[in-house]
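hiii so um. not sure if this is the right channel but i have a protein structure encoded as tokens and i wanna go backwards to a sequence. like what aa goes where. can anyone help
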């Protein structure tokens, strides 16, 4: 069963595990885009973007569609990271699709990723992107390749 929606703010379970927070913060792209990992637990992650001139370069001053696609990929990765088992080796995004439903305007947007199914070689995730008013603006999906570590 997929994980539920985000936990209420202040809930002690809603914190980001330190190893994931460190990995997220160590990635230069996340800093350049103004991204923050706000929640991560097995099968679920939420990231937020604080917009600026570089990201508000889409049609009509909206967040650029390529930035939204990157958010789909990044949110999925952190939802998946928390589900990896010993021997699971990340092997890269095999497929990413996004449907833009409406422009994303404003100072902040969030992407919420849920791992729908994780097998031995592929994981499938769905991602929803919301504006500040929690209006659904885009839906994404990914397939992520996994492989098993060599036992030797």
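sure thing!! here u go:
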């Amino acid at each position: 069963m997929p994980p539920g929606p985000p936990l209420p703010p202040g809930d002690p379970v809603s914190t980001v595990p330190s190893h994931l927070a460190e990995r997220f913060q160590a990635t230069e792209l996340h800093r350049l885009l103004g991204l923050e990992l706000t929640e991560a637990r097995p099968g679920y992650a939420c990231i937020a973007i604080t917009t600026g001139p570089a990201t508000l370069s889409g049609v009509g001053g909206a967040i650029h569609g390529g930035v939204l696609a990157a958010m789909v990929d990044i949110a999925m990765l952190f939802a998946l990271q928390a589900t990896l088992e010993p021997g699971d080796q990340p092997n890269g995004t095999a497929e990413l699709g996004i449907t833009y439903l409406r422009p994303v305007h404003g100072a902040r947007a969030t992407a919420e990723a849920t791992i729908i199914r994780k097998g031995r070689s592929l994981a499938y995730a769905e991602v929803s992107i919301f504006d500040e008013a929690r209006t659904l603006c885009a839906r994404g999906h990914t397939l992520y390749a996994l492989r098993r570590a060599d036992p030797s």
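oh and The chain has a mean pLDDT of 88.
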